[in-house]
Amino acid sequence: MQAFSKRQVALGRLLLLAFFLRPALGAASDATTNGQQIATIKAQMDAAILRVQQIVNQPVTELRRTPDMRVETFGPGGWFHPGAIKPMFLIVDVRATQEFPYNGKQYVTSDLKPGVVFLGSELEFNPMTKYFYTDRSVPKRKLTESEMLEINQLYRVIGRCEHQLVDIEHPIPKRSMNESQQSDESRGPQPLLTTVHRWIFTHKLAGVGAVLALLVILFFLRKKQVGDPAD
């Protein structure tokens, strides 16, 4: 039997290299796509967070304290207790958690700024926006209905982005072959066509087909060059 020519061997090596490199190239492409998706989602979430911070940390009126003012002091430790509850972004309605602890108090202050007073009627506290308070040395301005509705919408964006990032960065693993087989067996006998179809994809018969195609190509090349001198 005539040996394969150098050209045939080189062609075979190239085909085999392409076959075995294909999964690696596919994995690299998936990683690039995932990285782009993650960057896009994080940018969207960061923009929503920034907008929430802008709304809830709007400046409030500050007045110099004078002796004739009736002022109530809040503290010790300032306006807020340490920590904050992380909102359930997909369901919370910040309108329902708005509080007015300063109502009925004309001027209020804290031990953080004893020489400065604030208008009690202008202020609020909301445990579902406290997570985004950036400056806790001052009280927070009372939000309007439209501002709270905007925060609700922004919270939905943040919540969806968080879930999308989890799905991409920590995908649920697929069932193993044994688990799939056990599940199939628990459902009882399957039709022959279904069994063959599942076996083909489970065992990646496409790879076997590629190897067979390579052998056929080499066979016809050798047959075409019978009698030709070796390269």
Description of the molecule:
The protein has 231 residues and is α+β, with helices and mostly antiparallel strands. The chain folds into two domains: 6-27 and 171-224, no CATH class; 46-169, no CATH class. Helix content is 51%, strand content 8%. The protein is built from five helices and six strands. It has a four-stranded mixed β-sheet, with no helix packed on it. A hairpin with a 5-residue loop joins strand 3 and strand 4. Helix 1 (6-56) packs antiparallel against helix 2 (145-169). It is rod-shaped. The two termini are 17 Å apart.
Question: What topology emerges from the helices and strands here?
Answer:
Layout: H1 6-56, E1 62-64, E2 71-74, E3 107-110, E4 116-119, E5 123-124, E6 140-141, H2 145-169, H3 177-186, H4 192-202, H5 205-224
Parallel strand pairs: 2-3
Antiparallel strand pairs: 1-4, 3-4, 5-6
Helix pairs in contact: 1-2, 1-5
In short:
The protein has 231 residues and is α+β, with helices and mostly antiparallel strands. The protein is built from five helices and six strands, in the order αββββββαααα.
